[in-house]
Amino acid sequence: MSYAGATAARSLRRLRVGGPRPLSAYGRKISVRFCSSGMTLDNINRAAVDRIIRVDHAGEYGANRIYAGQMAVLGRTSVGPVIQKMWDQEKDHLKKFNELMVAFRVRPTVLMPFWNVMGFALGAGTALLGKAGAMACTVAVEESIAHHYNNQIRTLMEEEPEKYQELLQVIRKFRDEELEHHDIGLEHDAELISLLTQRSPSPARPGLCLTTEALTFQGKCDFKIGHHPKMMPG
Protein backbone atom coordinates (compact mmCIF):
# COMPACT_ATOMS: atom_id res chain seq x y z
CA MET A 1 0.00 0.00 0.00
CA SER A 2 1.32 3.46 -0.89
CA TYR A 3 2.05 6.10 1.76
CA ALA A 4 -0.98 8.10 0.61
CA GLY A 5 -3.18 5.02 0.81
CA ALA A 6 -1.99 4.20 4.33
CA THR A 7 -2.64 7.76 5.47
CA ALA A 8 -6.15 7.66 4.01
CA ALA A 9 -6.85 4.36 5.76
CA ARG A 10 -5.74 5.75 9.14
CA SER A 11 -7.93 8.84 8.62
CA LEU A 12 -10.91 6.65 7.80
CA ARG A 13 -10.38 4.64 10.99
CA ARG A 14 -10.28 7.83 13.04
CA LEU A 15 -13.53 9.00 11.45
CA ARG A 16 -15.20 5.69 12.28
CA VAL A 17 -14.04 5.89 15.90
CA GLY A 18 -15.54 9.37 16.20
CA GLY A 19 -18.82 8.42 14.53
CA PRO A 20 -22.27 7.85 16.10
CA ARG A 21 -22.33 5.41 19.00
CA PRO A 22 -24.99 2.92 20.08
CA LEU A 23 -27.19 3.61 23.10
CA SER A 24 -24.88 1.80 25.51
CA ALA A 25 -21.93 3.90 24.40
CA TYR A 26 -24.09 7.01 24.51
CA GLY A 27 -24.96 6.18 28.10
CA ARG A 28 -21.26 6.07 28.96
CA LYS A 29 -20.81 9.38 27.17
CA ILE A 30 -23.46 10.96 29.41
CA SER A 31 -21.68 9.61 32.47
CA VAL A 32 -18.41 11.12 31.30
CA ARG A 33 -20.08 14.45 30.58
CA PHE A 34 -21.48 14.58 34.11
CA CYS A 35 -18.07 13.59 35.40
CA SER A 36 -16.70 16.79 33.83
CA SER A 37 -18.69 18.78 36.41
CA GLY A 38 -17.57 16.54 39.28
CA MET A 39 -20.60 14.22 39.28
CA THR A 40 -19.47 10.58 39.14
CA LEU A 41 -20.90 7.31 40.36
CA ASP A 42 -18.34 7.29 43.16
CA ASN A 43 -18.67 10.76 44.64
CA ILE A 44 -22.43 11.42 44.52
CA ASN A 45 -25.19 10.63 46.97
CA ARG A 46 -26.25 7.51 45.09
CA ALA A 47 -29.45 7.03 47.09
CA ALA A 48 -30.69 10.57 46.39
CA VAL A 49 -29.75 10.51 42.69
CA ASP A 50 -31.31 7.06 42.22
CA ARG A 51 -34.57 8.26 43.78
CA ILE A 52 -34.63 11.44 41.73
CA ILE A 53 -34.05 9.69 38.42
CA ARG A 54 -36.48 6.86 39.23
CA VAL A 55 -39.32 9.18 40.27
CA ASP A 56 -38.79 11.54 37.34
CA HIS A 57 -38.59 8.69 34.84
CA ALA A 58 -41.88 7.29 36.15
CA GLY A 59 -43.54 10.71 36.11
CA GLU A 60 -42.44 11.47 32.56
CA TYR A 61 -43.49 8.00 31.41
CA GLY A 62 -46.91 8.51 32.96
CA ALA A 63 -47.22 11.95 31.36
CA ASN A 64 -46.39 10.45 27.97
CA ARG A 65 -49.12 7.85 28.41
CA ILE A 66 -51.62 10.56 29.43
CA TYR A 67 -50.88 12.61 26.32
CA ALA A 68 -51.07 9.45 24.19
CA GLY A 69 -54.58 8.85 25.53
CA GLN A 70 -55.60 12.45 24.91
CA MET A 71 -54.30 12.35 21.34
CA ALA A 72 -56.18 9.11 20.67
CA VAL A 73 -59.42 11.01 21.36
CA LEU A 74 -58.65 14.62 20.43
CA GLY A 75 -55.80 14.24 17.97
CA ARG A 76 -57.90 15.32 14.97
CA THR A 77 -59.65 18.21 16.68
CA SER A 78 -58.58 21.85 16.84
CA VAL A 79 -56.75 21.30 20.13
CA GLY A 80 -54.80 18.35 18.74
CA PRO A 81 -51.71 20.41 17.73
CA VAL A 82 -51.56 21.98 21.19
CA ILE A 83 -51.59 18.57 22.88
CA GLN A 84 -49.08 17.21 20.37
CA LYS A 85 -46.62 20.03 21.08
CA MET A 86 -46.76 19.33 24.81
CA TRP A 87 -46.44 15.60 24.17
CA ASP A 88 -43.33 16.17 22.03
CA GLN A 89 -41.68 17.94 24.96
CA GLU A 90 -42.66 15.08 27.26
CA LYS A 91 -41.06 12.65 24.82
CA ASP A 92 -37.82 14.63 25.08
CA HIS A 93 -38.06 14.52 28.87
CA LEU A 94 -38.58 10.76 28.87
CA LYS A 95 -35.70 10.25 26.43
CA LYS A 96 -33.35 12.16 28.72
CA PHE A 97 -34.37 10.18 31.79
CA ASN A 98 -34.02 6.93 29.85
CA GLU A 99 -30.44 7.98 29.14
CA LEU A 100 -29.83 8.91 32.78
CA MET A 101 -31.25 5.55 33.92
CA VAL A 102 -28.56 3.84 31.83
CA ALA A 103 -25.77 6.26 32.76
CA PHE A 104 -26.38 5.99 36.52
CA ARG A 105 -27.55 2.35 36.52
CA VAL A 106 -30.96 3.10 38.03
CA ARG A 107 -33.71 0.52 38.05
CA PRO A 108 -37.22 1.66 37.01
CA THR A 109 -40.04 1.86 39.51
CA VAL A 110 -42.27 -1.15 40.09
CA LEU A 111 -45.23 1.14 39.25
CA MET A 112 -44.40 1.17 35.51
CA PRO A 113 -47.30 -1.18 34.59
CA PHE A 114 -49.64 1.10 36.57
CA TRP A 115 -48.46 4.21 34.71
CA ASN A 116 -48.79 2.40 31.39
CA VAL A 117 -52.45 1.49 31.83
CA MET A 118 -53.68 4.23 34.17
CA GLY A 119 -51.90 7.02 32.30
CA PHE A 120 -53.49 6.18 28.96
CA ALA A 121 -56.91 5.58 30.54
CA LEU A 122 -56.76 8.90 32.37
CA GLY A 123 -55.73 10.77 29.24
CA ALA A 124 -58.44 9.21 27.11
CA GLY A 125 -61.08 9.46 29.85
CA THR A 126 -60.58 13.16 30.47
CA ALA A 127 -60.37 13.83 26.73
CA LEU A 128 -63.82 12.28 26.31
CA LEU A 129 -65.08 15.23 28.36
CA GLY A 130 -63.75 17.50 25.63
CA LYS A 131 -60.93 20.02 25.43
CA ALA A 132 -61.65 21.45 28.88
CA GLY A 133 -61.49 18.00 30.50
CA ALA A 134 -58.17 17.18 28.87
CA MET A 135 -56.70 20.52 29.87
CA ALA A 136 -57.94 20.18 33.46
CA CYS A 137 -56.08 16.88 33.61
CA THR A 138 -52.96 18.57 32.23
CA VAL A 139 -53.13 21.33 34.83
CA ALA A 140 -53.44 18.91 37.76
CA VAL A 141 -50.80 16.42 36.64
CA GLU A 142 -48.24 18.99 35.50
CA GLU A 143 -48.56 20.86 38.78
CA SER A 144 -47.90 17.65 40.69
CA ILE A 145 -44.82 16.87 38.57
CA ALA A 146 -43.48 20.42 38.94
CA HIS A 147 -43.99 20.11 42.71
CA HIS A 148 -41.74 17.04 42.77
CA TYR A 149 -39.14 18.77 40.63
CA ASN A 150 -39.04 21.66 43.12
CA ASN A 151 -38.49 19.23 45.98
CA GLN A 152 -35.68 17.57 44.07
CA ILE A 153 -34.01 20.91 43.34
CA ARG A 154 -34.19 21.71 47.05
CA THR A 155 -32.67 18.32 47.91
CA LEU A 156 -29.72 18.75 45.53
CA MET A 157 -29.13 22.35 46.59
CA GLU A 158 -28.81 21.16 50.19
CA GLU A 159 -26.14 18.67 49.09
CA GLU A 160 -23.42 20.15 46.86
CA PRO A 161 -25.02 22.26 44.09
CA GLU A 162 -21.72 22.61 42.20
CA LYS A 163 -21.38 18.84 41.98
CA TYR A 164 -24.96 18.38 40.73
CA GLN A 165 -24.97 21.44 38.46
CA GLU A 166 -25.82 19.63 35.22
CA LEU A 167 -28.52 17.49 36.80
CA LEU A 168 -29.99 20.63 38.34
CA GLN A 169 -30.03 22.27 34.91
CA VAL A 170 -31.99 19.34 33.49
CA ILE A 171 -34.51 19.35 36.32
CA ARG A 172 -35.00 23.13 36.22
CA LYS A 173 -35.51 23.11 32.46
CA PHE A 174 -38.08 20.31 32.63
CA ARG A 175 -39.80 21.94 35.63
CA ASP A 176 -40.21 25.16 33.68
CA GLU A 177 -41.65 23.28 30.69
CA GLU A 178 -44.12 21.43 32.92
CA LEU A 179 -45.28 24.79 34.31
CA GLU A 180 -45.69 26.04 30.72
CA HIS A 181 -47.98 23.06 30.08
CA HIS A 182 -49.87 23.94 33.25
CA ASP A 183 -50.41 27.50 32.00
CA ILE A 184 -51.40 26.29 28.54
CA GLY A 185 -54.08 24.17 30.19
CA LEU A 186 -55.47 27.20 31.99
CA GLU A 187 -55.47 29.15 28.74
CA HIS A 188 -57.54 26.42 27.06
CA ASP A 189 -60.61 26.31 29.32
CA ALA A 190 -59.30 24.07 32.11
CA GLU A 191 -61.03 26.32 34.65
CA LEU A 192 -64.36 25.73 32.91
CA ILE A 193 -64.35 22.01 33.68
CA SER A 194 -63.41 22.84 37.30
CA LEU A 195 -66.57 24.91 37.68
CA LEU A 196 -68.68 22.18 36.13
CA THR A 197 -67.27 19.37 38.27
CA GLN A 198 -67.87 21.35 41.46
CA ARG A 199 -71.59 21.01 40.75
CA SER A 200 -71.57 17.64 39.03
CA PRO A 201 -68.59 15.36 39.79
CA SER A 202 -66.80 14.19 36.65
CA PRO A 203 -66.52 10.43 35.99
CA ALA A 204 -62.82 11.00 35.33
CA ARG A 205 -62.20 12.65 38.71
CA PRO A 206 -61.44 9.36 40.59
CA GLY A 207 -58.77 8.49 38.02
CA LEU A 208 -57.27 11.97 38.19
CA CYS A 209 -57.15 11.89 41.98
CA LEU A 210 -55.67 8.39 41.96
CA THR A 211 -52.94 9.41 39.54
CA THR A 212 -51.92 12.57 41.38
CA GLU A 213 -52.04 10.70 44.69
CA ALA A 214 -49.81 7.96 43.20
CA LEU A 215 -47.30 10.58 42.11
CA THR A 216 -47.36 12.04 45.60
CA PHE A 217 -47.10 8.61 47.25
CA GLN A 218 -44.07 7.75 45.14
CA GLY A 219 -42.50 11.09 45.97
CA LYS A 220 -43.14 10.60 49.68
CA CYS A 221 -41.57 7.16 49.57
CA ASP A 222 -38.49 8.57 47.91
CA PHE A 223 -38.20 12.07 49.38
CA LYS A 224 -40.43 11.95 52.47
CA ILE A 225 -42.02 15.24 51.51
CA GLY A 226 -44.71 16.50 53.80
CA HIS A 227 -47.74 17.70 51.87
CA HIS A 228 -49.77 17.02 48.79
CA PRO A 229 -49.35 19.80 46.18
CA LYS A 230 -52.16 22.30 46.44
CA MET A 231 -54.55 21.87 43.56
CA MET A 232 -54.96 25.04 41.55
CA PRO A 233 -58.21 26.01 39.82
CA GLY A 234 -58.77 23.86 36.76
Automatic annotation (TrEMBL):
Q: Which organism is it from?
A: Camelus ferus (Wild bactrian camel)
Q: How does it sit in the membrane?
A: Peripheral membrane protein
Ligand binding (Fe cation 1) = E60, E90, H93, E178
Localization in the cell: Mitochondrion inner membrane
Q: Which UniProt keywords apply?
A: Iron, Membrane, Metal-binding, Mitochondrion, Mitochondrion inner membrane, Monooxygenase, Oxidoreductase, Ubiquinone biosynthesis
What is this protein's name? 5-demethoxyubiquinone hydroxylase, mitochondrial
Cofactor note (record): Binds 2 iron ions per subunit.
Reported cofactor(s): Fe cation
